[in-house]
Amino acid sequence: MKRNIKHTTRDRYLTPEEGAKYRAIRQQIEAEKPEIAARIRRQLVAISSIQKVFEQLREIRETKGLSLRDVQDLTGIDASALSKLERGERENFTVDTLVRYAQALGKQVAVSVSDG
């Protein structure tokens, strides 16, 4: 995906040294782009995996006939925050939140590390 970059006109030309400096910076950025993109893809996969956990917790909650208010009473976590977690609208949460939610449903959270 190529983006158009707006070029700013200067009131003077760059010196050869300045031009070389900026070219070197642009080359460094281009060289780092693949690793940055790969890191972002890995993070998205991790977020997707965690989102699946919250989807599973929602399914368990619904199977048990519990409302979000019921889970709020059991965990002390706001029902609207729980709802956002279940829908994937809130990516920033603590492990404590995840553990408390799971425990309220009689479940445990298991964490593992795997090769990516």
Description:
The protein has 116 residues and is mainly α. The model has no long low-confidence stretch (mean pLDDT 88). It is built from four helices and no strands. It has a single domain (16-104), classed as 434 Repressor (Amino-terminal Domain) (Orthogonal Bundle), CATH 1.10.260.40. Helix 2 (68-75) crosses helix 3. It is elongated and about 70 Å long.
Give the beta-strand count.
0
Q: Separation of termini?
A: 24 Å
Count of separate structural domains: 1
What is the C-level CATH assignment?
Answer: Mainly Alpha
Helix content: 55-70%
Structural class: mainly alpha
Q: CATH superfamily assignment?
A: lambda repressor-like DNA-binding domains
Which topology does CATH recognise? 434 Repressor (Amino-terminal Domain)
Uncertain parts: none
Strand content: under 5%
Radius of gyration: 23 Å
Q: Work out the helix count.
A: 4
Whole-number average pLDDT?
88
- Just name the CATH architecture: Orthogonal Bundle
The outline comes out as elongated
Major sheet size, sense and barrel closure: none
Order of helices and strands: HHHH
